[in-house]
Amino acid sequence: MFYGWAGANLEVDLSRGKLKKVAADPKVLESCLGGLGTNARILWDRVPPEVDAFSPGNLLIFGTGVLTGTPAPAFNKTVVSFKSPVTDMVAISTLGGFWGPALKSAGYDTLTVSGRSDKPVYLWINDDRVELRDARHLWGKNCPQTEKILRQELQADDIEILYIGPAGENEVFAASIEGTSAASASRGGAGAVMGNKKLKAIAVRGTKDINLADGARLIELSEQILHKTGPGGMASRDNVVGATTISLVNRNLWAVDFYGADVPAAVQEKVKDIPRTVAGFARKFRTRQVSCYNCPSKCK
Question: What is the pTM of this model?
Answer without folding.
Answer: 0.85
